[in-house]
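Researcher: Re-running this chain for the archive, since the previous output was lost when a drive failed. Same request as before.
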Amino acid sequence: MNPIGIFMTAIVGCLATTLSASAANSIPANGAEPNAKKFSIAFVNDIHAQLEPHPELFWRDDHSKRVHNAGGLSRIATAFKQLEAERPHGMLKIDGGDTFQGSGPGAWTQGEVMVRPLNALGLDVAVPGNWSVAYGAKQLQSLSEKVNYPIIAANIFDQKTGDRSFQPYLVKEVNGLKIGLLGFTDPDVPTRQPPHMSKGLNFQAAKVLQPLIDELRNEEKVDVVVLITHIGLHKAVPLTRQLRGVDISLSADTHERTYEPIEVGDVWVVEAGAFGSLVGVMDITMSGGKIVDRQWELIELREDKFAEDEHVKGIVDEVLAPHRERMNREIGHTDIWLERYNVMSTSMDRLIADAVKESAGTDIALSNGFRFSPPTAPGPITEADLWNWLPLNLEIKVGKAYGKQLIDYWENEFENVFSRNPSRLYGGWLARPSTNMDVQFDSTAKANERLRSLEIDGEPVGPDKSYSLAAGARDGQPADQIHRVKRCHVTKQIGLTTHDAVRHYLAQRGDVTETGKPPVQCVVRPDVLRSQYLAFIKERQQEREAEMQGADSPADPKTSISPSVDSNEKEPHEKEMNDE
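Model: Regenerated structure tokens:
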């Protein structure tokens, strides 16, 4: 197969592509396989406490469509039932984590609002996500005891006892096949999230996995090993390559929509979007102890395709009833869609950053490149929307930094998102500045050489000039740090929160009709880049093809899917508190 042909366009007006791993590469399972057995997996991830249907943006093959009603646990329930009915051989239902956090009701109840609706879905297993510690280690344990399915994680340990906080794996029998399900969550949780959230827990690295895979193979005698990770697609792919004995790799954290699976040797790596807007289903056929056929489909849970399950809808209505008045309180109105599906700049975050800047009275404001929150459609903006945008209500911190600090800050942000080493692709998308800052960069340049220009209010940033800045303050953050700008001076917290800032901004502005020019622009990419990792695949593939052609040798698609981790690289990099 021509290696260029393994890619297909998967985003609107941008370079991101996804690796096609066609079932044509497998041996067809048919009547010639007398001992063939099938099983299926339905996979959701990163629901982020989005209990109800919500506005959504779908994109694929250069086409995009905004819909006003998609997803919701009631629609997931309908999809699960339909998929199971079509698969009498048996299906496992798996949740990839980041389930209890991400909405107002989730925050107001410390995730408790999710328990009854989740228990109605008939899930078989789940893994914790990086935001599963949002309400503290004790609450995570409490939630895990209240759901009616096991939560597994091989690398979370109790700091005091040294014991695992969760069982590392689960063995399930489906259609006469033994399936080993192995869980692994982000070992960087103590630095991605404020440290107090995971206090009492110890997160270990991926070295814990291979002995457990061997245990599943040699002692549990499983037929298939399914690795379920919450580390992001950019880390799941190289990790899958490094492990022996994995058959299927289910990824979560980065909200990537892998309409076509990524093939790593003989293993498929997939991720199923976010917010309960999509469900992925994989059908596997086994014969002679091997996978001989597999199919993957990422299903969009649109209103016109899937009705809401009335039973689950009733439960959701009941658990949300105490919160409806607060959720529905109007704080503004928008005439445009407010979205967050872009690596570099989004309308939603431009509004937030400008609001923080205005309330703080500073030269600039900075906000994280969060991935959570489905779009907000034209119409009223409610408290529920605000809590979707900002599930953490942080007090605003202000201070001053020199231009050189801002330059260094942006170089580090670029490395977090566009590093040539996949192990350094960290956290979320690019940080979001207020719209009076203009950041021009080249994502393909070397580390610490990506920034092309940096301006504030149309004037070039002077390295020795002092600028005031504002951002939400996080527990455990050094007193002299604002966002990830270190060694700031004259810092203080002003008694207003990020939520206060947005409410005030909307009250003063009236209808939102536009959110300004994107303040962060890449000089070698279109303004819209939906995927952090799928673009990374394409670029590395093209580089390797060029290298192989230069060596007068054909590129091998099995070895050029993504780069291996080069432990000898010494590019400067900071990863502190860079969450999604």
